[in-house]
Fold this protein.
Amino acid sequence: MMDSEILRAFTTYAIIVILKMMLMSPLTSYFRLTRKVFANLEDSKLVSPILDKALVRVDPAVERVRRCHLNDLENVIPFLAVGFLYALTGPELSTALLHYRIFAGARIFHTFAYILAFPQPCRALGFMVGLLVTVHMAFRVLGSVLLL
Amino acid sequence: MMDSEILRAFTTYAIIVILKMMLMSPLTSYFRLTRKVFANLEDSKLVSPILDKALVRVDPAVERVRRCHLNDLENVIPFLAVGFLYALTGPELSTALLHYRIFAGARIFHTFAYILAFPQPCRALGFMVGLLVTVHMAFRVLGSVLLL
Amino acid sequence: MMDSEILRAFTTYAIIVILKMMLMSPLTSYFRLTRKVFANLEDSKLVSPILDKALVRVDPAVERVRRCHLNDLENVIPFLAVGFLYALTGPELSTALLHYRIFAGARIFHTFAYILAFPQPCRALGFMVGLLVTVHMAFRVLGSVLLL
């Protein structure tokens, strides 16, 4: 199945953005453990059996990472589906690569902009570029396979 | 790859529900900007450098759009995976189209019911119909390919 | 398309973890209805037209199920994408089955650990095993198809 160069290109960038997205889980755990901020009593009990209840709380830095993770779900997953279907429509390899590279770059930039709280419109720019790449591919796909 | 009519039908409806789901992001931004309700200090600073901290707050209308978006993630993404695997099992085109059309219609109705706060059980109905279509396809797929 | 045994194995386990993930929606509804805790006024109005506003509130048990559901989205969906691309690279059937089975087992265990609040590190273990299986497949895929 992986003889197609376009499918290989998609797969490469898909794995890159998935791994980036999955990195948000350990990053959340890191913030929770270093700041001692937990969502569940059984988690805080492991870290501090005495303070347990007091550590079940909300922290702005943890919430920031969680919002970044959710934003990834909202954008990376549509890219995975659209990018795959787009690859199946047989576009030019160079055109497909351009879409995939810009998307991956935009989302990596978006993550830094979110976690490090760059002044706006940095994060908005990363978000918009990723969104437009996905929407552009979506309309290309619709244009070539439409069957309602 | 896109010679199969069933794959073209799936692709068409997949793109429709993905675009619908992605629309929730700009809709959230629209509510945030018009109601001046932000999740990050760097966002509110761009809109109002003086009031900045006061605008980092929670608003019921914004939370409603966000819940609708999350509900889409919870339902549209399983549909994408199940609908694609279902297409690969080679069902009748008319049967597959029926599943895809009902799902897309149910989710579009669900979105209006959620955002415009239709009285229940409107939204519950849209949700249930979408869920049942996906679960039905899931069992059809399991029945034809089971390999544990 | 479903002649490949590896694709059939992936499909089977994909459907299992998707159905498990989708179960979280009715479980949330069950907790909301039995505990009379709602996120929307139109929902609480259906249950109690008099108390309506008082029932729009947050409850720890409901939030626990919602966090479990979100954790599924964050982990099961990357597995679906990576597991499918991994199947396309043509691994040994027994190796692929091992990955799929361990992932499905880990996520089912994770759900029980989360909902029933098993003492940590039970849930962390289920989470980590699932994450490592997906990351391991991701690197196997990258190693065999890399095209940047």
User: Anything to note?
Assistant: Residues 45 and 52 of chain A are 5 Å apart (CA to CA). Chain A is about 75% helix and 0% strand. Helices of chain A lie at 5-35, 41-47, 60-88, 93-115, 122-145. The first helix of chain A runs from residue 5 to 35.
